């Protein structure tokens, strides 16, 4: 074995860490493209929100609070998304390889879609520990109507201090139960739809890697849309539950939140903000998977 080959093997990134790094880069790309629509969807989902379209909410928000208001709460996901997304993709990759080995799947065959679904559910379970406090802090930032930079505006660090002072560390995990119920099945759908769609659009890409960026874009966007749609009512409940401190919230828990929301507004309440959410989901996940696969291919060829 030549010295060059020995060195290339020494510095080669393992598959698990390839998933980690590529997932982190993909997550950052997703957040940067989708934050304004995320702010709009959170506001539409809340109690006492007025009827309106994405554009009417966007226009009113910018006129009242300035353009930067669309990025309220972005600091939390931006500073954590690399780790969160990296953990999701690393867990997914490890789970797929484990299930493939357990079932004796040949090395030249892709893992079955049923195992992809199971691996996605494992990834959704693991990432909940990260996403729950991040989502809670982000939502608290997004629902305030103070202009960023004004004296009564609560910034990122102050928001965190307020939650810890009023509710303790456990306050950061308000909504953990409904987040788990949302994220476990939705991540199975997410990865399953993605793998099926990319293979349909570009046969053989699950084994050799994708060479068609449009196939990745479409597969990632469709996966994001269908995974969100499959659990959307749970997201509305979660957003409402996390918007207020426990002492000020009208809801005792997520089941009480669901019952009260239905009693006050009917079944339509569980689909509030769906258009904004699905629009954002396509953009974010198309960017995420495109960057993820590109990064993965680059590391595999190194």
Automatic annotation (TrEMBL):
InterPro entries: MCP (IPR002067), MCP_dom_sf (IPR023395), MCP_transmembrane (IPR018108), Mitochondrial_Carrier (IPR050567)
Cellular location(s): Mitochondrion membrane
Keywords attached to this entry: Membrane, Mitochondrion, Repeat, Transmembrane, Transmembrane helix, Transport
Principal cellular location given in the protein's record: mitochondrion
Solcar repeat boundaries on the chain: 17-98, 111-200, 211-298
Topology relative to the membrane: Multi-pass membrane protein
GO MF annotation terms: transmembrane transporter activity
Keyword Repeat: yes
TM spans (from-to): 20-37, 214-232, 269-292
SUPFAM superfamilies: Mitochondrial carrier
CC annotations in GO: mitochondrial membrane
Alphabetized Gene3D superfamilies for the sequence: Mitochondrial carrier domain
Pfam families xref list: Mito_carr (PF00153)
Similarity section: Belongs to the mitochondrial carrier (TC 2.A.29) family.
Protein name: Uncharacterized protein
Provenance organism: [Myrmecia] bisecta
């Amino acid at each position: 074995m030549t010295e060059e080959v020995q060195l290339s093997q020494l510095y080669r990134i393992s598959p698990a860490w390839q998933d980690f790094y590529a997932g982190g880069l993909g997550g950052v790309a997703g957040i940067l493209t989708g934050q304004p629509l995320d702010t709009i969807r959170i506001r539409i989902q809340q109690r006492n929100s007025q009827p309106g379209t994405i554009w009417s909410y966007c226009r009113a928000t910018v006129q009242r609070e300035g353009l930067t208001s669309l990025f309220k709460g972005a600091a939390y996901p931006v500073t954590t998304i690399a780790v969160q997304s990296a953990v999701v993709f690393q867990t997914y990759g490890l789970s797929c390889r484990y299930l493939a080995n357990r079932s004796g799947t040949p090395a030249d065959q892709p893992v079955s879609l049923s195992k992809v679904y199971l691996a996605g559910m494992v990834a959704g379970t693991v990432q909940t520990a990260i996403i729950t406090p991040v989502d809670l802090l982000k939502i608290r930032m997004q629902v305030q109507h103070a202009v960023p930079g004004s004296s009564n505006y609560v910034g990122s660090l102050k928001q965190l201090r307020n939650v810890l002072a009023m509710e303790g560390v456990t306050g950061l995990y308000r909504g953990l139960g409904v987040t788990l119920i949302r994220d476990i099945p939705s991540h199975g759908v997410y990865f399953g739809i993605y793998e099926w769609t990319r293979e349909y659009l570009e046969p053989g890409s699950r084994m050799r890697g994708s060479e068609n960026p449009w196939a990745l874009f479409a597969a990632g966007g469709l996966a994001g849309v269908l995974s969100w749609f499959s659990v959307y009512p749970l997201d509305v409940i979660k957003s409402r539950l996390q918007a207020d401190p426990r002492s000020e919230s009208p809801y005792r828990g997520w089941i009480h939140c669901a019952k009260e929301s239905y009693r006050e507004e009917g079944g339509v309440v569980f689909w509030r903000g769906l258009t904004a959410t699905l629009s954002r989901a396509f953009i974010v996940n198309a960017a995420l998977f495109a960057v993820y696969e590109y990064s993965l291919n680059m590391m595999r060829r190194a």
